[in-house]
C-alpha cells in the first residue's frame, strides 16, 4: 500500500506517455526481421518450384523439400533475418539510459528465437499441406506447391 501509489504515479508520469513512441520505434526492426523471414520462405519455395519445372524429377523435389525443412536451422540463410533485428541494439541503448532497460541482448535473442520458430512453423505447415500431393500428377505439382506456399504465407 505504501509503495503502490508512488509507483503508479511514477509510471503514469514518467513511462506511460512514452510507451507508444517506444513501441513504434522498436517495431521497425522487429517487423523488418519478420518480413525478411517471410521473404526468405517465399524465395526458397519459388526456387523449389523453378527447379521442379526444369527437371520434373520427383526424387529431387523430395530432396529440395527436405532441405526446406532444415531452413530454420540454416544459420547462413537465416542470418539476413537476424541482422534486421540487430538494429534493436542501437535503439535499446537510448531506452537503457532513460528507463533503466537492461538485458538488451536477451530481447534481441528472444526476438531472433521467435523468428526461427516462425520459420519452423512455416516449413512444417508447408510440409503437412504438401505431403499428400507429392504423389500427384507431375503436371500439377508446381501449381500445388504454389497454392500451398500462398496458404502458408497467409
TrEMBL record:
Residue ranges annotated for the Niban 1/2/3 domain, each copy included: 9-154
Signal peptide per UniProt: none
One Pfam family linked to the record: Niban2
Residue ranges the record marks as coiled coil: none
Source organism, top-level taxon: Eukaryota
PANTHER family: NIBAN FAMILY MEMBER (PTHR14392), PROTEIN NIBAN 1 (PTHR14392:SF3)
UniProt family annotation: Belongs to the Niban family.
Name listed for the protein in its UniProt record: NIBAN protein
Origin species: Ciconia maguari
Amino acid at each position: 500500500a505504501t509503495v503502490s501509489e508512488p509507483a503508479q504515479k511514477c509510471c503514469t508520469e514518467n513511462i506511460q506517455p512514452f510507451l507508444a513512441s517506444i513501441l513504434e520505434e522498436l517495431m521497425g526492426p522487429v517487423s523488418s526481421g519478420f518480413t525478411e523471414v517471410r521473404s526468405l520462405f517465399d524465395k526458397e519455395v519459388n526456387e523449389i518450384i523453378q527447379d521442379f519445372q526444369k527437371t520434373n524429377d520427383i526424387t529431387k523435389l523430395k530432396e529440395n523439400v527436405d532441405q526446406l525443412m532444415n531452413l530454420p536451422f540454416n544459420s547462413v540463410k537465416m542470418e539476413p533475418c537476424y541482422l534486421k533485428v540487430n538494429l534493436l541494439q542501437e535503439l535499446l541503448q537510448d531506452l537503457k539510459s532513460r528507463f533503466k532497460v537492461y538485458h538488451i541482448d536477451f530481447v534481441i535473442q528472444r526476438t531472433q528465437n521467435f523468428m526461427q520458430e516462425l520459420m519452423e512453423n512455416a516449413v512444417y505447415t508447408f510440409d503437412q499441406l504438401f505431403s499428400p500431393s507429392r504423389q500427384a500428377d507431375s503436371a500439377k505439382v508446381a501449381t500445388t506447391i504454389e497454392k500451398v506456399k500462398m496458404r502458408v504465407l497467409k
